[in-house]
Amino acid sequence: MESALLVEKTILVVAVFAITLFIAMYSTLVERKVAGFMQARFGPDRAGPFGILQPLCDGGKFFFKEEIIPAGAHKFLFIMGPTVAMFTACISSAVIPWGQELTIGERVIRLQVADINVGVLYMFGVVALGVYGIMIGGWASNNKYSLMGAVRAASQSISYEIGMGLSLIALLMVTGSLSLREIVAQQEGFVNWNIWVQPLGFLIFLVCAFAECNRVPFDLAECETELIGGYNVEYSSMKLAFYMFAEYINMFVSSSLMAALYFGGYNFPFMYDLGLSQNWITIIGVLVFFAKILAFIFFFMWIRWTVPRFRYDQLMNLGWKVLIPLAVVNIVLTGIVTIVKDTYF
Amino acid sequence: MSVFYFVAFLSIFFALMTIFAKNPVHSVLYLVVTFFTFTVHYILLNAQFLAVVNFIVYMGAIMVLFLFVLMLLNLNKDTEPMKSNLVKFMGVIAGMCLVATLAGSFRVLASSEPIVLKNPDIGLVGNLGRVLFSEFLLPFEISSILLLTAMVGAVLLAKNDPKKA
Amino acid sequence: MQSLSNRKKVLDQKPLNFWERMYLPAIARGLGITIRHFFKPKATYKYPEVERPYSKNFRGQHSLKRDEAGRERCTACGLCALSCPAEAITMISAERKKGEEHLYREEKYAAVYEINMLRCIFCGLCEEACPKEAIFLDGSHVPPEQLRKDFIYGKDKLVEPRFEYKKEKEITA
């Protein structure tokens, strides 16, 4: 039994890892396609039909590029930077519940790598750790622009973590659990989705997620017009690819987190009314979950090609003077509503 | 048990590296790794919540701020303050005192009885919260007031006096 | 200062009102615009497969014409080279031998005719200068090359392919 569990989890881990990388890989293509379509172009369409081989070509190109480590750089930390960024991006998908149970023969397989009691906090911690990759890399490059990018990334990430955490607290007051599996399981059907009870919290979380992923309009850390590329100026070849990949994986993970926390995860309307067997519900649920994630990824890109970059003081004002007070107000409101509901209904 | 010894070795090793590292940024990074080993310790003790909070607050926030400040300071050999001989002498005396105290404490060393927790799940979030908000409510609230005062003080320090400006 | 034209507009920048400071309505409007563009027809021509129509008076690569009997029209008078503001054209003339009447229309012809496509500015003055209607800039773009010497086009690239009367007659017959 023990070894079967090991095999099961190994398969799950490999599958999740592969899917994560696959989606991150194709996000790069989709991003360019979306950018093209929104600017009356086609985007890359030469490599294979509709350009579907483009990510492979890009990867191959990155592999064969010359690897440059600047003379003044700290060599070990220079390599550590992208490694940490990639590592933290990859381990964050461990606690996300991808679906319900699958029953194969006698075995019941839960489609989640690890059901940690404090899953939400784990995600939060890993996200907080992600900034180290950028900071270490930016500092080790021994370059002014990289350092500026690293410092910006650090202060931005710390500022928005607070808003994110406070918006999550209001959500946790509603769910009463820190386990992602339980939070998703509570949002059965359609009307129980947390977005209906926490719209303001979701908005704050969404903005903070953009900032944590260093995505436009909050990509001050790599802002080309001011810092020529920010923390990754000195990087080339696969190390640069790692940074970019980490960004796309982060985008995927935060999309899945938003889908799980606020949009019901694998739940879909009328899931138990259609008379399907449990296995079918699970499979459709997984597909629905991925559809939600992809929708969020598209939203990330849509925003990127719509909204211009914020100025740095605007970013800080938004974080500290708008989002954090709003999140606190949201907590108080949620508390009042909960008490009123418990006492009078 | 062997896992504990391994992790304990790692934490002491990295703690020492924190002190001995020449470069302040390396020192902070070693400290980060030290905190990570502490997180592992908490997990070994089945204190998931403490582990994650240690992870988020110390590794994720405080150390980032440390690193942030150190990166901007650009410390190198030239900026290091010269230590006078008097300071060195005092340092030696203080160090010797510490060694003497440690050596003295070895004499009264005895292994305690292994403590078996009545409730092994005491470290989980729900139980911790229940205890914090019933038994230890007063200390909890007082510590939150302490943090609030610190915050107000920090804001006061950071804010320019409008009369002077 | 007083405006003389009376067209001066004074901009008064009002402080943003609450909705404007919220950013969100503006962002939502922006998102609406971009998603509309997402589904609009694209301006791109997929070049090698689809070619963009050229304008009628487009001046591209030169071609040396033949007459209706398939003979080269050029008589190597050098007027094109003389008119060329970029000094791109050069040629060596030769006299037509007996038995070459089916190749060259005039008694003198260009044995070597070279245009340096890197110098050429495609102004079309050679076309205007030519008394024999032998040169026209009616081709498409000059394709890219690796070496500079490959941009010097000789007669092999410039002269129109020969119109094969005989073969066509054979096919129809």
Describe the protein's architecture and organization.
The complex is a heterotrimer of chains A (345), B (165) and C (173). Chain A is mainly α. In chain A, 68% of the residues lie in helices and 2% in strands. Chain A contains twelve helices and two strands. In chain A, a hairpin with a 2-residue loop joins strand 1 and strand 2 (107-110). Chain B has a domain at 1-75: NADH-ubiquinone/plastoquinone oxidoreductase chain 6, subunit NuoJ (Four Helix Bundle (Hemerythrin (Met), subunit A)), CATH 1.20.120.1200. The relative contact order of chain B is 0.07. The model of chain B has no long low-confidence stretch (mean pLDDT 82). Chain C has a domain at 63-169: Alpha-Beta Plaits (2-Layer Sandwich), CATH 3.30.70.3270. A three-stranded antiparallel beta sheet of chain C has the order 2-3-5. Chain C has 173 residues and is α+β, with helices and mostly antiparallel strands. In chain C, 12% of the residues are buried. The N and C termini of chain C lie far apart (88 Å). At the A-B interface, helix 4 and helix 5 of A face helix 2 and helix 3 of B.
Summarize the structure.
The complex is a heterotrimer of chains A (345), B (165) and C (173). Chain A is mostly helical and 345 residues long. Chain A has helices at residues 2-38, 54-64, 75-91, 119-140, 144-175, 180-186, 194-197, 199-212, 224-227, 237-262, 278-304, 312-344; strands at 101-104, 107-110.
Largest interface: A-B, 25 and 20 residues
CATH architecture of the domain at 1-75 in chain B: Up-down Bundle
Q: In sequence order, what are the helices and strands of chain A, one letter per element?
A: HHHEEHHHHHHHHH
SS-based structural class of chain A?
A: mainly alpha
State the distance separating the first and last CA atoms of chain A.
Answer: 47 Å
Mean pLDDT of chain B: 82
Mean pLDDT of chain A: 83
- Helicity range of chain A: 55-70%
Number of helices of chain B: 6
Q: What's the gyration radius of chain A in Å?
A: 21 Å
User: Which percent range describes the beta-strand content of chain B?
Assistant: under 5%
Morphology call of chain B = extended
- The third-level CATH topology of the domain at 1-75 in chain B is Four Helix Bundle (Hemerythrin (Met), subunit A)
Determine the structural class of chain B based on helices, strands and strand pairing. Answer: mainly alpha
The CATH class of the domain at 1-75 in chain B, by name, is: Mainly Alpha
User: How many beta strands in the DSSP annotation of chain B?
Assistant: 0
**What pattern of helices and strands is seen along the backbone of chain B?**
HHHHHH
How many distinct beta strands of chain A? 2
Report the end-to-end length of chain B measured between terminal Cα atoms.
61 Å
- List segments of chain A where confidence is low: pLDDT < 50 over at least 5 consecutive residues: none
Approximate shape of chain A = globular
Catalytic activity (chain A): a quinone + NADH + 5 H(+)(in) = a quinol + NAD(+) + 4 H(+)(out)
Subunit structure (chain A): NDH-1 is composed of 14 different subunits. Subunits NuoA, H, J, K, L, M, N constitute the membrane sector of the complex.
Membrane topology (chain A): Multi-pass membrane protein
EC number (chain A): 7.1.1.-
